[in-house]
Amino acid sequence: MRGYDFTPYRRSTVGFDRLFDFLESASRAEQDNYPPFDIEKLGDDSYRITLAVAGFKREEIEIVAHQNVLTISGKRSEERNRDGNFLHMGIANRAFERRFELADFVQVSGAELADGLLRIALQREVPEAMKPRKIDIGGTQPTTIDATPASAKAETAELSTAA
User: Fold this and answer.
1) Count: domains in the chain
2) 19 & 74 share domain
3) How far apart are CA 61 and CA 74, in angstroms?
4) Which of 8, 86, 90, 119 would you call most buried, defined as having the most Cβ atoms within 10 angstroms of its Cβ?
5) Whole-prediction pTM value?
6) Are residues 12 and 54 in the same domain?
C-alpha cells in the first residue's frame, strides 16, 4: 500500500492526532491474517467480532480492553508431538495477537467460545450528556438565570427595607 503524508491535515486540525497516527500505522503494518475474523453490525449501537480459534481452550485465550483498544491473544500449550507420532503437522499451533481500535464509548459487553469460534459482543453506550438534544424555541421573553445566591438576595432585601 502506498503511504500518505498527513502533515497538511495535522496543521489544520486540532484533536485528531490519534486518528492520523492510526491511519499511518495501519498503512505501515504488515497484515497477518491469523486467526481469521468477522466484524458484524447487529444494530445501531451493537457489534460482534468473531474469531476462528479452533483448538484453543478458554484458559489459553486472553481478552483485554484498555482505553480504545481491544486486544485478543492466544497461546497454546506445547503438548503436541511430545511422543513423536506425527507424520505431518499441518494444523497451526502458533500464538496470536489481534488488536482492534474501538470508537469512543464502545464497550465489550460479553464473550463466548463455542465450536471453535470466539464471539465478542460490543455495545456503544453514549452518555446522556453527549447525546444530541432538541432545544425548543420559546415565543415569550427569554428567561435569564440569576447567579446571585439566595442568601445574598435576602441580605439585599433587608437592607432596602431598612433604608
Assistant:
1) 2
2) no
3) 4
4) 119
5) 0.62
6) no
Strand partners, 123: 46, 107
Same domain, 26 and 65: no
Q: Which domain does 8 fall in, by range?
A: 1-31
Beta carbons within 10 angstroms of residue 48's beta carbon: 15
Q: What is the amino acid identity at position 128?
A: E
Contact 100, 70 (CB under 8 A): yes
